[in-house]
Amino acid sequence: MKLFGSKNKKPSQQSYAVVTGAGSGIGRSFALELARRGGTVVCSDINLEAAQATVSLIEQLGATAFSVQCNVAKAEQVSELAEQAEKLLKNPVTLVINNAGIGLGGKFDEMTMEDWQWCMDVNLWGVIHGCRAFVPKFKQLGYGAIINVASAASYTAAPEMTVYNVSKAGVRALSETLSAELKKFDIKVNVLCPTLVPTNIIKNGKVPHKGILDYALTHLAFTTSDKVAKLTLDRLDKNQLYTIPQFDAKLFWLMKRTAPNLYAKFLGTSYRLMK
């Protein structure tokens, strides 16, 4: 068997992996990079055609992959994904990447309960469902690895992004807690917290100033989804909890950690002046 094992191999190498939201963006980059590292990948996406397109790209690399349609907001679909993945891989899953997510922004009092439900169901509950489906299997196996895709929004607290910020803060808190709780079971956890990465999250989401943000993602991002995926997998292999890929994300992290009250005042004053 080519499982990475609990002691002698890195989690990203020759893995049996499940990636949600693998039809585009960071999810597709994760799937392709895992294939390059000798892995076999189950590519899950709510858009089956997008997942199949990722599988085709992996097959062009000479690797093996499978496509599965899954809405991560539905717990029963994620549980079925976990069972189906083992059958397709003919091996236990050793790595799950909870990547599927959506973008949502707007002023707090303009967000409807439907907006909150939609965003939390995908961004937070989708990750929770993924962890609940695979953690018991990893415990039974004796090892495993989890990457949860959060965002720098989980700590930057940018105005007019309340719902999104809360959902990603939940993902970060979940990951931090699981890292401590699962260490004794040899289950590694990494949480990815990027700023701008060129993906479809703005185009497919519901955010203010969509044109400006989409332009920023395309032209002003300090990295690419491929670089982010590679860095995150490398840090997982080194048993690092956090992946904060860009300079601006690191700067915000440092400011928030070292001077939280000053950061909050700066943020509020800046927003007021901009308006």
Reading the helices and strands in chain order gives EHEHEHEHEHHEHHEHH
Shape: globular
**DSSP strand count:** 7
Distance between the termini: 59 Å
| Low-pLDDT ranges | none
Task: Describe what you observe in this structure.
The chain has a single domain (16-274), classed as Rossmann fold, CATH 3.40.50. Helices cover 52% and strands 12% of the residues. It has 10 helices and 7 strands. The chain has helices at 25-36, 48-60, 75-89, 113-141, 153-156, 162-182, 210-219, 225-237, 247-258, 260-274; strands at 16-20, 40-45, 65-69, 95-98, 144-149, 187-192, 242-243. The chain is globular.
Task: Summarize this structure as a short list of keywords or feature phrases.
275 residues; alpha/beta; Rossmann fold; 7-stranded parallel sheet; 7 strands; 12% strand; globular
Q: Could you outline the blueprint of secondary structure elements for this entry?
A:
Layout: E1 16-20, H1 25-36, E2 40-45, H2 48-60, E3 65-69, H3 75-89, E4 95-98, H4 113-141, E5 144-149, H5 153-156, H6 162-182, E6 187-192, H7 210-219, H8 225-237, E7 242-243, H9 247-258, H10 260-274
Parallel strand pairs: 1-2, 1-4, 2-3, 4-5, 5-6, 6-7
Helix pairs in contact: 1-2, 1-8, 3-4, 4-6, 9-10
Task: Give a brief rundown of this model.
With 275 residues, the chain is an alpha/beta fold. The protein has 10 helices and 7 strands.
